Amino acid sequence: MKINKKTLNAVMYGVIIVLVIGIGVSAVKLLTRPKIVEQPQSSSSETVEASIIFYEESSEAVDLADIVVRARVIDDNINVRSGPGTDFERYGSAYYGNTLEYISQSHNGWTKIIYDGEEAYIYSEYIELVPMVVNVEGEFTEYLGADAPTAEEMIKWSDAAEEPAEGNGN
Questions:
Q1: Which residues contact 21 (CB under 8 A, 6 or more apart)?
Q2: 170 exposed, middle or buried (CB, 10 Å; 0-12, 13-18, 19+)?
Q3: 88 close to 98: Cβ distance less than 8 angstroms
Q4: Burial of 95 by CB count in 10 Å (0-12 exposed, 13-18 middle, 19+ buried)?
Q5: Within 10 A of 164 (CB to CB), how many other CB atoms are there?
Q6: Which pTM value belongs to this model?
Q7: Quick check: 155 and 111 in contact, CB under 8 A?
Q8: DSSP assignment, residue 76?
Q9: For each of the chain's 170 residues, which pLDDT tens digit applies?
């Protein structure tokens, strides 16, 4: 069976077109992906610092002192601000599933967190408090043990003398 030159050229052009489209789509996806923010392990006196005992999946029990509270983002592209209100400077964004170091909540609807190593605020409706432990890889993982604290037990209230601005954070 003999393939003529026109057919062979048409097949080669088709393959080249498919490859160019694939490379273009991959480049667009890479350029438009959300920024990944490195999250510090711990800097609050409330959390276990340099002497973190790693939690292994095979452990039968976790010391309650090893459990830390983290704020997990439950919506996408949420503003992180320098103060508890929409009038404060916007530091950046947090994305669905990000967990941030939790400091406290205020009665005006804002949660104080650590973002890029700085104290910052995120509107409380966009986060949930999650008990976490550090796994053997040094990453935070949700603690699902029977003795995990309830949401009410995890909240630390702090209504300092900060003047809140009205607004829902976005």
A1: none
A2: middle
A3: no
A4: middle
A5: 17
A6: 0.55
A7: no
A8: S
A9: 788 888 989 999 999 999 999 999 988 888 877 666 555 554 443 443 333 444 444 444 555 557 888 999 999 999 999 999 999 999 999 999 999 999 998 888 999 999 999 999 999 999 999 888 887 778 887 777 767 777 777 778 876 544 444 555 56
